[in-house]
TrEMBL record:
DNA repair keyword on record: no
SUPFAM superfamilies: NTF2-like (SSF54427)
Signal peptide (UniProt feature, chain positions): 1-19
Domain DUF4440: 30-138
A Pfam match: DUF4440
Name of protein: DUF4440 domain-containing protein
Record's keyword terms, sorted: Signal
């Protein structure tokens, strides 16, 4: 009987700890996305890229195919959005953050660029986040 109570107590404790970690992970990931949005909306592509893993192993999948690496991804953004007018104002919506483990999570959502002179753009995305050196960063981005 005592062993059963102990096992149940340990399971409840572990579940509580996992729920707290998941909530903290979701909050940290939301903060990365909010920081990216703010950087984009002030025309700061480099600041926006701080949410990505600064590595040659970063992968971005877009309508033009695969891009590997932080610098090539930054170069693509700069080429496609050469100034604040082309960048417009970014908004994310319908975010679904799903922790896949203590150090990995996926985010599915929608992006929308409001661009009065160039026309609005929108689409969906799947991001894979990983906690690296205590910081949540995007390691893979599939945006359409």
């Amino acid at each position: 009987m005592k062993l059963g109570v102990l096992v149940i107590s340990l399971v409840l404790f572990a579940t509580s700890v996992q729920a707290q970690r998941s909530a903290a992970s979701r909050q940290a990931i939301n903060q990365v996305l909010a920081t990216q949005t703010a950087a984009w909306n002030r025309g700061d592509v480099t600041g926006f890229m701080q949410g990505y893993w600064h590595s040659d192993s970063l992968v971005f999948i877009g309508k033009r195919g695969l891009t590997y690496g932080w610098q090539p991804t930054l170069d693509n953004y700069r080429r496609n959005y050469p100034d604040a007018s082309a960048m417009g104002q970014l908004a994310f919506s319908n975010l679904h953050i799903t922790p896949l483990g203590a150090e990995v999570a996926q985010v599915v959502g929608r992006w929308h660029l409001t661009r009065p002179t160039a026309g609005d753009l929108e689409g969906h995305f799947l991001l894979v986040f990983r906690r690296i050196e205590g910081r949540w960063v995007i390691i893979a981005d599939h945006s359409s």
